[in-house]
Every structure is written in C-alpha cells, then in structure tokens.
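Supplementary material to the annual report.
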Amino acid sequence: MTDTQWKVFEVFHQQARGEPHVHVGSIHAPDAEMALILAKEQYSRRQACVNLWVVPAEAILATAYENDDIFERATDKSYRESWGYKTPKTITTSDEATKRRSDEG
Amino acid sequence: MVVAVEKNLGGLSSAEYERRLEKFEARINRGEKIEPADWMPDDYRQQLIRLIHVHANSEICGALPEGRWIPHAPTFKRKLALLAKVQDEVGHGQLLYRAAETLGPSREQMIEDLISGKSKFSNVFHYPAETWADVAIIAWLIDAAAIINQTMMAEGSYGPYARALKRICYEEAFHMKHGYEMCVVLANGTKVQRDMLQDALNRWWTPIMMFHGPSDKESKHTAQLVRWKVKLKTNDEQRQQFLKQFVPKMLDLGMKIPDKSLRYDKASDTWLYDDPDWNEFKKVVNNGGPVSQERVEARRLAHRDGQWVREALAAAAERKPVPMPPTN
Ligand SMILES: [Fe+2]
Ligand SMILES: [Fe+2]
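Predicted assembly:
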C-alpha cells in the first residue's frame, strides 16, 4: 500500500495585495503543487485571499523556545528607536551662534 | 520534535521533573501558550492527544448524517448551505488531526484507529438523522453546543489546538445561524412541519443533554484539565450555559422540551434537571449506539474508496504513471 502520510507543508495566506503573507496552518500533501491546491481548499474558503504560499515544513529552521533568552534586551537599545531621540519643537539659537554665523557669512 | 511517549517522570530525576513542571504551570498561569517543542508533562500530552483525536473524529463522523441529506435538501439554497457545512466539518477534522500530530501520533494512525473502532467520536453522531428536521436540529443545537465547547477550548493552553479552534469557531457561526433559520422556518410552517421539528427534538434531546460529557460528579479528568487550561469549564458548566442560552429560544419557537425534570430555578438562575443515564452515554460512545457500526463502516468504505485517489496523487508527485480508478 502507498504511504499516504505525506510531507507537511506550512501555509501562508495573503489577504490583499500589499499585505504581508501570514502563517495560517499546515497541510499534508505529496508535493508542493498538490499542497497549493489543498491549501486553497482548506484555508481560503471564507476570508479574502489573493495569494498563497506553501513551504515544506522541513525547510523551516526555527529558534528553540528554551533559548528564548537570546531575544532578551540586556542593554539599552533605545538608540535603535525613533523615540530614543529628543529634539525640541522650535529651534532657538543662541545670540553667540547667530553672531558667529553672520561673521562667517 | 521529541515524540517519545514519556511515562511518569519521563526518565527525569524527580527534582528535575518538579522544576520543569513548575515552569510549565507558571507559563500556563501567565496565560501563555504551550508549543509543540516545549517540555510538557506526559499526562498533559496524553490528555490532549485523546481530546483532539476524539474531536477530529467527531468532525469527520458529524459530516456523515448530514452528508446523507445533501441529495434530499428541499431547496437549492439549502443544498448549497449543507454542502458548505459538510465541507467545513471535514476541513475541521483535517485541521484537528494536524493539531494532534504535533503531539506525536500520525494522521494515518488516527484515521486507522477511528476505522478500527479503537478511538471514539462524539455521542451525538451515533444516532441517525431520520428526517429533514433532524438536519435542522443538528445544525442549530448540536453546532450550538459544539460552539460553547470550542470557544472555551480556543482559550486553552495548547497553541496548535487553540489556533485551529479559532479558525473553526469562525466557520461554525454560519452552521448554527443556518440551523436556527431552518428551525424557525419549520416552527412557523404547516402542522406537518411543526410536528416534524418537535419529533426531531424529542429524539435528540437526550443525546444533546449528554453532549458535553458526564456530570462533574462522574468525570474523573476534569480537575486536572482545568488546572492546565486544557478545559476552562467543567462539563456541567458548559451544559448549563447551553440550557441558559437555548431553552428560552426553543420555547420561543413553540417547541416543547421533552424532559419533565427540567425546571428553571430563579434563586440560583440555573436550569435544574435529572442527570441523563450516563451508562447509556458510555455504551453509545463505545460504539454501542443505534448507528455506531454504520458510521464506522461508512468511514471505512470512504477511506477504501478514496485509496485510488491518494495513490494517484502519490504517483503524480513522483512523476509515475497515474493509476486509473477501479471499475465495478
Ligand atoms: Fe465543525
Ligand atoms: Fe459545525
């Protein structure tokens, strides 16, 4: 008898052009082409869909949850964020700076 | 993924087991989900496999009584709706087998266990759908009871199951609404239609009362399952929620509840009832119900008849000649 357990493909669903593809689940299929057909039946019966991806589950390399400390922020990473920088709403320059600029000009 | 079935401590020292258990329970208490690669107590894994497997089987077997009515749907719109519902239910079964697979057992094995009668499915699908009104009662009240169970389970602690259930609950909403509409039409129809609806309720009442499982007095698993957020409500709590939500609606439609013990207690705002015969429930879910054998046999034949399709797909994937369907 043929083995019909088959490979697992992860399914990514895009609701509208411009939106990201979102992981919605997985499916068994003998090959990628069939996985697309089955994914369409299983995952796009209701919600709008403009595009589907299927990816062999075995192709995905994931971090391990037990090592999730690698994502912890030990140091101050505010320099990576826009909110890490403060600028005043109105710029007032000092008399000295104004004078220097006109001297140079 | 680690699939090894751990017994008790799973080869860990008891100190290590306690340490992991504490972390596991703390995660659940924080409202975080458990994912397949996480450490989990063997009991948690086994209970989930059992629950999800039975749930998946029930979706598949639930499609059988309704599927048989598709050719006899009274209007084209009803036929479309019923077709869509049956397709959804089979899809739910597939989603759930996938969720169970993340805990160890393979889909093929689980389907095999259903066909061989080794694994169970919901008590309600061991009864026949005798008339069109049964289809209406199933879609309204059994889907309603299932939604109560599934929306609760969707908040549970196991990630893959919770995610599958979110998707499933979204689709169930149409099943129930369509079922309700069918009941409203029958309840407002001719005497023949009204009698048919009442007759269906008379036959389905007890199975529906049993749907959420044995009473809390009898159910041995519930406490631990609640602590680990596999279940968030006990069987009796789910049943009570169902009665509160749906008995008034049934009465509104002029249906008579065929249970003389059922009464509303104002002081406690609960419905009181005499427990159904839980021995009958046990007999039924162990494939001793009126159509248990027929259901399992239908599933076995469907699996056998679909074999050539699966073989053709496998051959096509390997670019081999595709076998023809059998002729008989
Ligand atoms: Fe379903
Ligand atoms: Fe349903």
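Residues 59 and 119 of chain B are 13 Å apart (CA to CA).
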